[in-house]
Amino acid sequence: MKKILFVIGSLRAKSFNRQLAGVAKEIIGDRAEVTELDYSDLPLMNQDIEQPEPDAVARVRKAVAEADALWIFTPEYNFSYPGGMKNLLDWLSRPVKPMDYATPTCINGKRVAISGAGGKAATANCRAKLTELLTFIKADVLAEQTGIAVPAEAWATDILTLSEEQKMQLATQAESLL
Q1: By the 8 A CB rule, do 160 and 20 touch?
Q2: Is the sign of the CA dihedral 12, 15, 17, 21 positive or negative?
Q3: Which of 39, 46, 83, 158 to pair with 15, CA 20 to 30 A apart?
Q4: 137, 89 Cβ separation under 8 angstroms
């Protein structure tokens, strides 16, 4: 059975992107094993602590290496991706063995889907920049993406409700990823 690792860009417990990931998990159903990556304890990327790798880094690298694909669900912060997401990707892009730039990293060639729920731009800027970054670090980014503009009332209730069309976009993405 395929293993898909969900990466949620917002660490907030009731985040819209965590809710979006929940809908995607329902869509995937029993066709794949879905787990969520906890990267909340990653230290900031710092070459002074890179080797030996911190335990949290070893744990997330192992989870990414063992996954068949990643599905990122992320908000847009200030026209870009959240800092925690960038930190995670910085760690994943670094050599596992000191100064060994010839051996592929754990994210090299990994299939990655990107979705996001956020403001009026539906995370378009974040998704574009994330695509650029993931491509640079040699991940295999899927062309299909889902962007959700969160309705104004949801910001007051913390409840994300998707239309059937939005659910179909996620289903199309899931099919491509599977």
Answers
A1: yes
A2: positive
A3: 46
A4: yes
